[in-house]
Amino acid sequence: MVYILNALTIKCLNKGKSIMVRDNNTYFPSSKWLENAHVNSIDKYNEIYEESIKDPDQFWTSVADRIDWYKRWDKVSDVDYNKAKISWYLNGKLNVSYNCIDRHVESGNGDKTAIIWEGNDPSEDKKYTYSELLIRVKKFANVLKSLGVKKGDRVCLYMQMIPELSIAMLACCRIGAVHSVVFGAFSADSLRDRINDSSCKILITQDTGVRGVKNNIPMKENADKALINTPSIDSVVVVKRTGVNIEMVDGRDVWWHEETINASEDCEPVEMDSEDPLFILYTSGSTGKPKGVLHTSGGYLVYASYTHEIIFDYKKNDVYWCTADIGWITGHSYIVYGPMSNGATTIMFEGVPNYPDFGRFWDVVDKHNVNQFYTAPTALRALMKEGNTWVESRNLSSLRILGTVGEPIKEPEWKWYNKIIGKENCPIVDTWWQTETGGILISPLPAATPTKPGSATLPFFGINPVLLSDEGEEIEGNNRQGLLALNTSWPGQMRTIYGDHKRFFDTYFSQFSGYYFTGDGAKRDKDGYYWITGRVDDVLNISGHRIGTAEVEGAIGKANGVAEAAVVGFPHDIKGQGIYAFVTLMTGIDSSEIILKSIISSVAKEIGPHAKPDKVQFAPALPKTRSGKIMRRILRKIAEKDVNSMGDISTLADPSVVESLIKGSIQV
Ligand code: PRX
User: In 85-118, which positions are buried (b, 16+ CB within 10 angstroms) versus exposed (e)?
Assistant: First the structure.
């Protein structure tokens, strides 16, 4: 049972302060978890948290022993936020693929299932043991070598959720190549820009992809379009997923299956420095150009591994499922590196929650006896809307822990998750983190932390969140709201923006000296619990996907007839946030279906279909200050239909613009 905590008092230390939880909307971890969990009480959490903050070097030293090192580090950390300089486990040597595969085989767990691949179609699944995975990874690592890939080279992976994606990632880290996974829904243009930004040498893709009712996603065709302008790419490796006919370019393109069949099964892992790059993952920021977030080997692996074990209370025989796409950080840290470094059985799902019907997630849980299930609130909202019959016909009794990530979870879907999926028997971990953080920073621990629907609760061990005022003053005490920042580092933190360290400093460390600024707002409630209130910069969160308003505006601006566009978010029932575009056309051009279509297709072409606007409003002019800056605050209010609390509009160059925007009609 999950107990609702009523007038119960729990002493909890957060940032050295005592907090009390006695809210009647607080859920207490079920008693059956208390005994065997890794962290089995709030007192234990407090004790470890306190130690981790008091002596971080000692704490992160003991945590890092979970990883096999060729050589231990000389110094635990060297961090200077004023220079954006972050290093962990200095001069430590390891190999990530060795830690994720070989060591499990060597310790006698070679026959354990490493990956359960569940295809888009329910009839398709595959299992790979750790021994089988090792052979495949070694073979593909040799293929990469034969194509001239060397330590430090960048390899772009543009794939759907097929096993070869994980194999390719692990093969890259075996030989020290740096992978850059580009989410399979990104357009050819986005792929091209990402390849060029990090000068990737090789691209790995697939013929076509399947996802829900889409059974021919033109992956190779998109790749070919991108490759017209990518001078750094020497070769393309193509996985045959669907077997449809595709063009292969002589001298450039090779088939995965043909190259691997005779490849050697011998490939020693390369010794990597702790601070050698592991991967680049592009994410959106407040400018039009995505940032190549760079993570390095030692600290990232330690952090992904430890958080996976503790936050999901992972145990040796568990079947763990994170439904994310590996194209995003959640898939990197909590499908591949975290679970596999722990020798877990991790599920990789190619499909979508509503195909062939709305019970698909629960079929997979039932079929594979999933113990930990980790998903996004947007998926829960979409499924909740379809009613409970899809759930009731499936056996979910294997579930022990439920998780969410990517966006704030609201009370209705939290309660539905708790009651209908977890049968009031599974703690929910609402995990807050970012591409930049590498792993979870704020989250309940399932058998320790009383939870409140919608709150990510308390910081993980070693994590020091603070709330800042707009002026950068630390906001002390509870019942306060501010900008969420971190004043110390942790091993999983990103190290730089690929090729642009100045941008790294400017984006995260320049606004508030001595802090890593997350870009999120948060409030700390009376009990010291954190509630993430959302982005405070120009970044949208659409179905848990991060999209910069500037990127969408740039794409709209490329459509014929468009003079200017401004994009804001608005509350969306399923997606959490939707995209609302205000568009001004060139003089003499009238709004029309054709223009609307060209706007939508320009966004799909420049970014990908996931960034298409939900609403477009043609506007004669946009609200600008006298210095020409668009006042998005006003546009947000209009998009949210909250025009009565518009605030001061007197600084606008032309306040009458607002009236015409309020009266204007929406086109999509
Ligand atoms: O705004 C926060 C939101 O997602 C942002 C990070 O997005 P991304 O780098 O794509 O990583 C998503 C997966 C880790 C954050 O700045 N976010 C993430 N988790 C939560 C969240 N907002 C509220 N609650 C969460 N649990």
Answer: ebbbbeebbbbbbbbbbbbbbeeebbebbbbbbb
Residue 440 Cα: closest atom of ligand 1: 14
Predicted confidence (pLDDT) per residue in 314-372, tens digit: 999 999 999 999 999 999 999 999 999 999 999 999 999 999 999 999 999 999 999 99
519 lines ligand 1 (CB under 6 A): yes
CA 319/CA 339 separation, integer angstroms: 10
Would the CB of 290 count as within 6 Å of ligand 1? Answer: no
Quick check: CB of 437 below 6 Å from ligand 1?
A: no
Asked whether 577 lines ligand 1 (CB < 6 A), one says no
Q: What is the dihedral sign for C-alpha 278, 283, 286, 289?
A: positive
Residue 541: how many other CB atoms lie within 10 Å: 20
Whether this prediction's pTM lies above 0.85 is answered by: yes
SS (H, E, C) 5-34: ECCCCCCEEECCEEECCCCCCEEECCHHHH
Cα atoms found within 13 Å of the Cα of residue 505, Cβ hemisphere only? 11
Q: Residue 23: pLDDT band by 50, 70, 90 thresholds?
A: low
Distance CA 531, CA 453 (A): 10
Q: Pick the atom of ligand 1 nearest to 442's CA.
A: 26
Is the shortest distance between the CB of 570 and ligand 1 below 6 Å?
no
Q: Residue 273 C-alpha to ligand 1 middle, in angstroms?
A: 29
Higher pLDDT, 3 or 196: 196
The answer, yes or no, to whether any atom of ligand 1 lies below 6 A from the CB of 307, is no
Q: What is the pLDDT of residues 524-534, one digit of tens each?
A: 999 999 999 99
**What are 171-230's pLDDT values in tens digits?**
999 999 999 999 999 999 999 999 999 999 999 999 999 999 999 999 999 999 999 999
Name the region of 250 (left: φ>0; alpha: ψ -120 to 50; beta: rest): beta
Residues sharing a CB contact under 8 Å with residue 665, sequence separation 6 or more, in sequence order: 617
Contact of 190 with 288, CB cutoff 8 Å: no
In which element (H, E) is residue 615 found? strand 615-618
Ligand 1 mutation target, pool 541, 542, 545, 549, most atoms within 8 A of CB: 541
* Ligand 1 pocket member 612 (CB < 6 A): no
